[in-house]
Amino acid sequence: MGKVVMYASVSVDGFIADDNDDPGPLFEWLTSGDVPLDDGGVLKVSQASYDHTRAYWDSIGVTIVGRRVFDLTDGWDGTPPSGIDHVVVVTHRPPPDGWNPDAPFHFVDGVDAALATAQKLAGDRIVEASAGDVGGQLFAAGYVHEVRMDVAPVVFGSGKRFFGTVNAQQLLEDPEVVVQGNRVLHLRYPVRH
């Protein structure tokens, strides 16, 4: 089984979006360089960010998200983001009306079912857990092996927390990777178990 990585861009004060679910300047780093990160050339980052991010994106087999993220992104129009093969959506509701049943999205009830489905689909590739409430639930359950953050130089003051509703202390190991890019600091922490 591949490892489980909790990931997102985050403000220096620990938020992945403001109170209105707007990530605002958290993603400036994705357009602040001259190296194309995606096939369409919309995302352009520094060389350091490209080397770090592209290799990570290419190693992801499945991303787990909550229904809120799915709804906010309109399900990425049925195409998983960043070239990922599958998305597992944690939800208590059925897929939206008119949803293409052949799209590589899997709707499950709860993080245990999400992890089981994701690991089966990912094989030995990475299972990425989107930060926020669902990622926080996976983290609190002890399923997360590594925390990756793209720390943007912004302070929100309040909003959607990186670790969701986790309110218990958890120690991480020292960062294995620290990469500075334009408008971002990429960090990778192994989780102590």
UniProtKB/TrEMBL annotation:
Domain Bacterial bifunctional deaminase-reductase C-terminal intervals: 3-184
Cited Pfam families: RibD_C
Family annotation (SUPFAM superfamilies): Dihydrofolate reductase-like (SSF53597)
Recorded superkingdom: Bacteria
Protein name: Dihydrofolate reductase
